[in-house]
Automatic annotation (TrEMBL):
Pfam families: ADP_ribosyl_GH. This is ADP-ribosylglycohydrolase family protein. Residues 1-10 have a biased composition (Basic and acidic residues). It is an enzyme of class 3 (hydrolase). Belongs to the ADP-ribosylglycohydrolase family. Its EC number is 3.2.2.-. It comes from Streptomyces salyersiae. SUPFAM superfamilies: ADP-ribosylglycohydrolase (SSF101478).
Amino acid sequence: MNPRVPRDRAPVPPVRPDGGRRDRVRGAVVGSAAGDALGAPFEFGPPGAFSARFPDGVGTLCGGGGWDPGEATDDTQMAVLVGQSLVECGGLELPDVFARFRRWAAGDPKDIGLQTEDVLTSGEPWDLAAALHFQVNARAAGNGSLMRASTSAVYFARRGRAATMAAARRLAALTHGDRAAWEGTAVLHELVRVALGGADPLAAVEAALAEVHPDHRARWADVLAPGWHPDDATEFNGAVWPCLGTALWALRTTTGFEGALAAAVDVGGDTDTVAAVTGTLAGAVHGLGAVPERWTRTLHVPLPGHGDRVLRTADLVALADRLDESAEIPIPDTYI
């Protein structure tokens, strides 16, 4: 057991300063990016590395491991691409999202998941590439569809539980052929929807699980249970189950945004993605106002495949606003 991650830490009610829906929408998108940049320097490191670096509890976007201070990784880059497709196409156009992913992958990003790279560079069409990869490898339950879900979760939130979970599955399936990844992304979408509405996402887990495919419901129920702890994981947290489970655990056992992110990174392992997912949820709960200014000041998102383009916090805020404001545009039935 990681001594810095106590099993007996009791669940605590989160402090939710109500800055309104817009603040929560912005918090989900910026919070995910901030978590990504916070966790990146600690990726694949041991448990406790974050608290050892910042024993006073005041963490910074410190950079390291090939990342500049405040630099977001492929997690946020792909989330931005999803968000831009949704607002520019006026809805869910899966071929367009996939084409944007391919352009990005061809732009030589600093980091890209092995499975995602295999799918995007296979040369197969958008609607077959992930399925064919899964047929060959029989393993496709990585957390890569969770890491990029902040923007789509915001976009579909106003449309209700069924629509947001269906859209999450379709977006996940672009790169992940294992339904486990589809269902985990669908649960994340639904919990963000609840949080953006001002309710407690932890109280909505049971209802979300009821919508999970029956073949996958029991396993997801185990990892999302209130008593689950990161030490209970049976896979590395680069897998979809412990990644989302750790994010909920961090939200459940802390009182604020920064504390949740610190707890997530301190678990070790795939720290950028676990923290990005935690940041999506914690940002949707606590809002942009809870994201430390010392983080948002240096946060930036390079976009490989788009020249020298770099997004800053203000750009992420503008994207979040556009995603939420586009909520009334119909979704083509073909993609639900």
